[in-house]
Write a structure and sequence with these properties.
Strand content: 15-25%
Strand order of the largest sheet: 14-17-10-7-6-5-4-3-24
Radius of gyration: 25 Å
Number of strands: 28
Amino acid sequence: MKRAFISFLFFFSSALFVAAQPAFEGPPPSLVPVLDPVKRRAEYLARVKEVINWAADGGQAKTDDPAKLDLAMIAAKIVLKEDLHGCSQRVINLMSEPGTGPFWMFPTVCIAYLGRDHLTPEALASIRTAWRTTRQLRGDTENHWAMYYISLYLMAELYPNEPAESWYSGKTSAENLAEARSYLIHWMDLATTVGQGEFNPTHYIGEYVIPLQFLANWAKDPEMKKRGAMMLDWLFAELAANSLNGVLRGPNSRTDEGSAIERWQAMASYFSWLLFGNTPSTAGYGGWGLYFAPLAANYEVPEVIYRIATDRTGDFLQRDRARVRRFWRYSNELSPPVYKTNYLRRDYAVGSTRGGLMDVIQAHVWDVTWAEADPRGKHNTMFSLHPFSSMWAMQSMFVTHPEPMIKGVTFEGKPSYDSPDKIMGSSPYERVCQDLDTVIALYDIPADTRFPHINGFFSKDLVNISEDPSGWIFAQGGQTYLAYRPLAPYHWEKYLHHSSGWAKVRRDLGGRLLVSPHLKNGTIVQAASVSEFKDFAAFKAAINALPLAFRLDPTPSVQFTSLRGKKLSFTYDQVPTVDSRPIDYSKWKLFEGPYLNSELNTRKLTITHGKLERVLDFNTLTVTDRVK
């Protein structure tokens, strides 16, 4: 394959203006869509070049010492053809103590391919030796396996016809290639027929799209190359349709403390900034996101996907399907279906699943997220959850020995899992119903359950918070009015935050938790735009006038007429009704809405915006663009 992208990007590195200030420190970008495709492409390439130059300069550390280069810096320097001798020496040094697992494998693949014509033979040989001598762990999650098998596939293609003893796996190049290809096609079939297990991930989107980009660029097999390119479109279309001004909101199969409350603070925002230019980039350009930049000039986001992300003229409802993370124990189904509802307006978005156990540690079941002109540092969200913690639940989705559970996981990047005041995670004792911008969450928690209470998150950025005698709590976030109705008595606690997945000390970032220590419980949230009412008092009066009846014993149940005039009836563990009609989840498609549509089990996605249409068909591996 010709490596024309290297000289192409090198041209841009000298021809385009280099901003002295990184984008993540500058003013927020404009939300006006760039309709001129030439201008849009130029702005995209300028962002790509900015990331490459920043990484090549050592990022925030600003170093030119080869001994301090990491693989992301080396990748950028190879693209710019800078200090290739120093890069070669540093690669040899790094490969003397190779890592293990997908997060070491895919960056090493990046260097192996980028450096084919630029690193010394000794440096390239050191990479090959590491893939012979060091056992690579496959991991235990969907993103791990995608990274692992794409990496193995590409390395087996790069070094074909080699014997089993030359690989850590003890298999020949051909055997490694066949195993990797088989799994990747299986995974793509699952994702395009019944949905991903790790759907709408706030950070892990990078762990999918970066290796897929490698596959789309470097695979020799035309079929696998095409599959990589089509999956990029598939995942970026989901990002576009599930984001509010570039910010991915809930629900999410996997998230973390930071992006659960500061919705912008996720790698997904880096990709929105890079592809769509409609939100600030996260600090450091998403970390792993640096590995997307070296090949980013070879990808052009389809106009229909760009328009979905940036050019919306009205409210829209999207209903989708996905999968629960795989159960290894204690379930009759390997990956039960997930039913997602997303309602997006100009000022806010509301999203949910039906509740229940999804990802045992990092799921985010529902929220209301309001728009902010500059989302950085803003905790622009509201939700409640049951802070569930259970060795049984962890054993259901992990295959490790029980001894490290539960405490072990809190020392391995998930510090809040066993905290009674945590703000992420799913629970088998939560059920959720959503209709447009109304959410009802019900809880029926057994008496012997660890942490038998619910937490409601109230942001530091809310204003005009008032606890009304009616039982409603009113607040405003941005240009959104919010009404939160706890169904059982509660008290307030300060919210304390883990600043990273490895942080052991918690910080006070502002915000409070509404803690309701009752086994039978529930939350109702109703959102509306400020522009819909004369003033805040009018909103409160409208909410208080809505018919509401509920009971908690023997089973939580709510009858509520929403602000949109819908009569909602919802009882825990029963199918909710809207205007006396049960919601028929059996008829839900893989995607259904104005922008994304796909029938279950078809391997086919239609992406639509106005007259633009793009069809991804994995049955025939074809992409069809139409103007209707």
